[in-house]
Amino acid sequence: MKNEVEVEVFGQKHTVIGDGEPSYIKEIAQYVDQAMVRLAGSMRTATAAQLATLVAINFADELFRLRKERDDDLHTVSA
To answer: Averaged over 8-37, what is the pLDDT?
Structure first.
């Protein structure tokens, strides 16, 4: 069942429709919001679009590093 959840990220309201529990969707939105606010504090002239792009790149980097770490751990266990 799809859930429709209102969230706010970087001062903008969004409607998110997804399979996740509303509390989970809100938690993810809050995580994104916090990352954008943190980055905005160090890049005062950046636009919201620039901040969103940089946050997305940072999240992708985090994901790739975690995947590599997991793959390295699996390789170590199977060796």
So the answer is: 97
